[in-house]
Amino acid sequence: MSAIHPQVRGVCCALTLVFAAGCAPGPAAEADNPFVGAWSLASWESRSAAGEVTLPYDGNPAGQITYTAAGRMSAQLMQAGRAFPDAAEATGQEMRDAILGGFFSYYGDYSVDMEAGVVTHHVEGALLPGWVGSDRPRSFTFDGRDRLILSTEPDPARGGGAVGILVWERMSGR
């Protein structure tokens, strides 16, 4: 086994530190951007223009949204505990409906307007093809450091202009 020359070892260590510093957000990046991190869905409700409240996914949603310091985001939402038809007896369409009817996801870049209180998700990929290439602005408020409330714009396709209100809780590192 040959020994590594001390100068080569020093250069390798310095390059490793520079690379790591450039790839991982430091505490300052996270402090400057309160969105950075992974968030777990605590609740989700939909409010119609008439004020009627419904609970998507039968009131049993689960999900995670992640924001990186580099400006990337992804979101996955699903109905927890959903039942599936017996694969031996169900048609392909019944299986697709059961799977897709209780799950949604999308990803892309995001931008934040702190003064306006709006985070915009710039969708690059989504389960719904109509979302690809669209911008999805969300009004936001923080309830402390570890609770994020996002409100969608009124959606004419849902309940005559319903607004989704999603409450997210910061996930701790493991």
Helix and strand layout, with pairings?
Elements: H1 6-23, H2 27-32, E1 37-47, E2 53-54, E3 61-67, E4 72-79, H3 92-100, E5 103-113, E6 118-126, E7 135-142, E8 147-152, E9 163-170
Antiparallel strand pairs: 1-2, 1-3, 1-9, 3-4, 4-5, 5-6, 6-7, 7-8, 8-9
Describe this structure in words.
The chain is α+β, with helices and mostly antiparallel strands. The protein contains 3 helices and 9 strands; from the N terminus they run H-H-E-E-E-E-H-E-E-E-E-E. It has helices at 6-23, 27-32, 92-100; strands at 37-47, 53-54, 61-67, 72-79, 103-113, 118-126, 135-142, 147-152, 163-170. An 8-stranded antiparallel barrel has the order 1-3-4-5-6-7-8-9.
**Kindly state the mean pLDDT as a whole number?**
83
Strand percentage, roughly? 35-45%
Strand order, biggest sheet?
1-3-4-5-6-7-8-9
Return the structural class.
Answer: alpha+beta
**What value does the Rg take, in angstroms?**
21 Å
Tally of separate helices: 3
Low-pLDDT sequence parts = 1-29
Shape: globular
Q: Sheet with the most strands?
A: 8 strands, antiparallel, barrel
The separation of the N and C termini measures 37 Å
In short:
By secondary structure, this protein is an alpha+beta fold. The chain is built from 3 helices and 9 strands; from the N terminus they run ααββββαβββββ. Strands 1-3-4-5-6-7-8-9 form an 8-stranded antiparallel β-barrel.
